[in-house]
């Protein structure tokens, strides 16, 4: 099973920026869609952004206009650039891949990276 390792989280003030990275232990070049999820305690994990191998992107309404997802298949890495961060963006962020958004079966869930937005 391919391992996915997230990094780049941290404590940032409202309005700040972070760039998250997700490094896969195997090739992602044939993975149709890669996505970033987030989860807060007591709530279900939610899809924040996704990108297909063709570059088509999806963003949840809550982050649209503030985040950009990208992928570098040569480096087996997916990124999430987050700008204008809000306290409600505080969560643990995970990445996952798959054949469709409803079949995200590529890679195992990693430990995630904590994003905390607070003044």
Task: Give a written overview of the molecule.
The chain has strands at residues 4-7, 10-12, 18-24, 33-39, 46-52, 57-59, 67-72, 77-82, 91-98, 113-117. It has 119 residues and is mainly beta. Helices cover 0% and strands 47% of the residues. A hairpin with a 4-residue loop joins strand 7 and strand 8. The radius of gyration is 13 Å and the shape is globular. The protein has a 6-stranded mixed β-sheet, with no helix packed on it. Strands 1-3-8-7 form a 4-stranded antiparallel β-sheet, with no helix packed on it. The model has no long low-confidence stretch (mean pLDDT 96). It has no helices and 10 strands. The relative contact order is 0.33.
Brief write-up:
0% of the residues lie in helices and 47% in strands.
* Succession of helices and strands: EEEEEEEEEE
Taking all residues together, what is the mean pLDDT? 96
Give the strand line-up of the largest sheet: 2-10-9-4-5-6
Low-confidence stretches: none
Shape: globular
**Count the helices. How many?**
0
Share of helical residues: under 10%
Search tags:
single chain; about 120 residues; mainly beta; 4-stranded antiparallel β-sheet; 10 strands; about 0% helix; globular
Helix and strand arrangement:
Layout: E1 4-7, E2 10-12, E3 18-24, E4 33-39, E5 46-52, E6 57-59, E7 67-72, E8 77-82, E9 91-98, E10 113-117
Parallel strand pairs: 2-10
Antiparallel strand pairs: 1-3, 3-8, 4-5, 4-9, 5-6, 7-8, 9-10
């Amino acid at each position: 099973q391919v391992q996915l390792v997230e990094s780049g989280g941290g404590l940032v003030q409202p309005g700040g920026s972070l760039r998250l990275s997700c490094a896969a232990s195997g090739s992602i070049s044939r993975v149709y869609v890669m996505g970033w999820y987030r989860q807060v305690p007591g709530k279900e994990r939610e899809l924040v952004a996704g990108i297909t191998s063709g570059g088509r992107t999806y963003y949840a309404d809550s982050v649209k206009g503030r985040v950009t997802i990208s992928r570098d298949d040569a480096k087996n890495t997916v990124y999430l650039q987050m700008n204008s961060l809000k306290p409600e963006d505080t969560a643990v962020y995970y990445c996952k891949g798959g054949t469709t958004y409803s079949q995200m079966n590529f890679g195992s869930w990693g430990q995630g990276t904590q994003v905390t937005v607070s003044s």
